[in-house]
């Protein structure tokens, strides 16, 4: 059976969507900066207060837990801000408040992490089942079944949404508040936000290792 004009249009549109998503299909750094005056693995053997800021309280805790676990693998002790008294439950604290908390916790540095949803979102349509009505030949086409001249398709369940995530990190000296490293990254659309946070955290840890701040 020859493809119809409608079929070709849908195929072309699907190809465009696929090409667009292919360009953002991996978690990657988008920018990075390091203070040239900071030399050596200054974070080695130190304690770092991790402050993840997110509108989602559970994501904030997941983020800080991920940082603590992955910092520990490099010989650095991470301290979750949600475990520090007198800090806001959502992590939205001012610079002086964070520095004061870092000093109380005995931290050498602060990892200030900002998590936010990306502008790119993808809606996955619900699966469909089709029923063919009529005589002649039947078959599966365009997400449904057709038989003769009439094919009916019915969605099963609801469409699901997947959204990208952006992460921005600043490493600050707890004593002075000066930023000595910063980086930004994006994660592709996904319905598993915890997985996005894990990938973004590891990406940042890898970047700190490459920068020589960790060993």
Protein described:
With 215 residues, the protein is of the alpha+beta class. It folds into 2 domains: 139 residues, Rossmann fold (3-Layer(aba) Sandwich); 32 residues, no CATH class. The protein is built from 4 helices and 10 strands; from the N terminus they run αββαβαβββββββα. Strands 1-10-9-4-2-3 form a 6-stranded mixed sheet, sandwiched between helices. Strands 5-8 form a two-stranded antiparallel ribbon. A two-stranded antiparallel ribbon has the order 6-7. β2, α2 and β3 form a beta-alpha-beta unit. α2 runs parallel beside α4.
Give the amount of beta strand, in percent.
Answer: 35-45%
CATH superfamily placement of the largest domain = TolB, N-terminal domain
Largest sheet: 6 strands, mixed
Q: What is the element string, with H for helices and E for strands?
A: HEEHEHEEEEEEEH
The CATH architecture term of the largest domain is 3-Layer(aba) Sandwich
Q: What would you call the structural class?
A: alpha+beta
The N- to C-terminal Cα distance equals 62 Å
| Tally of separate domains | 2
Low-confidence stretches: 5-24
CATH-assigned fold name of the largest domain: Rossmann fold
Q: For the CA atoms, what is the radius of gyration?
A: 24 Å
| Shape category | globular
